[in-house]
UniProtKB/TrEMBL annotation:
SUPFAM superfamilies: OsmC-like. This is Organic hydroperoxide resistance protein. The lineage of its organism: Bacteria, Pseudomonadati, Bacteroidota, Flavobacteriia, Flavobacteriales. Gene3D superfamilies: 2.20.25.10, 3.30.300.20. PANTHER family: ORGANIC HYDROPEROXIDE RESISTANCE PROTEIN-LIKE. NCBIfam families: organ_hyd_perox. Pfam families: OsmC. Belongs to the OsmC/Ohr family. InterPro entries: KH_dom-like_a/b (IPR015946), OHR (IPR019953), OsmC/Ohr_fam (IPR003718), OsmC/Ohrsf (IPR036102). Transmembrane segments: none annotated. It comes from Aquimarina celericrescens.
Length: 141
């Protein structure tokens, strides 16, 4: 299968978890904070945001292909930073709300999205990813 580049994102980090991250277009200009005390972001929050947005977009694309109209979808991405005796790693839980369709169709859509989402492909067999279908999500923000 031939692939073509659609888009290249670029971000520059300096100072690691106590530094900053900026995007080439200036849209992102974020302070990083190891303490996760609410004063700045961290890599796990950025990964959770990217994965949730990409997964939701994949669901919408697949729904359109199946002639399903979804207007109330939502994906809550949770990324855990984990540590064992040797190193650090991450684990992901995606809580997906698809209240407009029946449970069987929703589970089928979740599985298809997990097979097609670029983040799911990138993480497959590398980190644990759990998909949870929730019937109605309320923002935790």
């Amino acid at each position: 299968m031939k692939t073509r580049k659609v888009y290249t994102a670029q971000a520059f980090a300096t100072g690691g978890r106590e530094g900053s991250v900026t995007s080439e277009d200036g849209v992102l200009d974020l302070k990083m904070n190891l303490k996760n005390d609410g004063s700045a972001t961290n890599p796990e929050q950025l990964f959770a945001a990217g994965y949730a947005a990409c997964f939701e977009s994949t669901i919408q694309m697949l729904a359109r292909q199946q002639h399903l109209t979804l207007t109330e979808t939502g994906v809550n991405g949770l990324v855990d930073l984990q540590q064992d005796e040797n190193s650090y790693g991450i684990a992901v839980v995606l809580e997906v709300s698809l209240p407009e369709i029946d449970e069987e169709t929703a589970h089928d859509l979740l599985e298809k999205a997990h097979q097609n989402c670029p983040y799911s492909k990138a993480t497959r067999n590398n980190i644990p990813v759990i998909l949870n279908l929730v019937r109605k999500m309320t923002s935790t923000l």
